[in-house]
Amino acid sequence: MPAITLTRQDGDQHRFSIADGQNYTAVTARWQNADTGTQGEVTVDANTQYKRVHTKTKKGKTSKKTRQVAVQTEPVTSSAENTKVLRHLYASEATALRGARAAFAKLQRGVTTFSITLAIGRPELRTELPVTVSGWKPQIDATGWLVSQVTHTMGDGGYTTKVELKIIRTSNKDMPKK
To answer: Which of 33, 59, 116, 121 has CA 20 to 30 A from 81's CA?
Structure first.
């Protein structure tokens, strides 16, 4: 689906914000097995890859069951203040990994938002539509955007559209600077 282009001249008002989530570059989740007492932690960052491995039976043999594990392609470079530590203590390594992945994905999604109130309404705008913008700062224009919310209004000022955009993220490298 082709991207819709919005220019600075299309809008009456705009707002660009970078949330504090940008400060986190990794998420750590702790786990403790109540049966065996073993404990550990799982750290997820942009370099984390996931693969399935066979589990071991109680006798040490390889089982047909598989589980997902995190593999770091590069060492975690996040410092303690840049790592979000989840407060919840998970019951297993697998649930801790799922929790850390979900929290990291949420941080990546909600970091940057951009909203524009269009002077003339655009009825073709709808959620999940890719958008390119132009006329703002270069780091805003160079970012890929996705429509997260659209509000069409008919009032005294005529037909207007308010568009809220979220960043299309693939990694931390395409994050705009403050």
So the answer is: 33
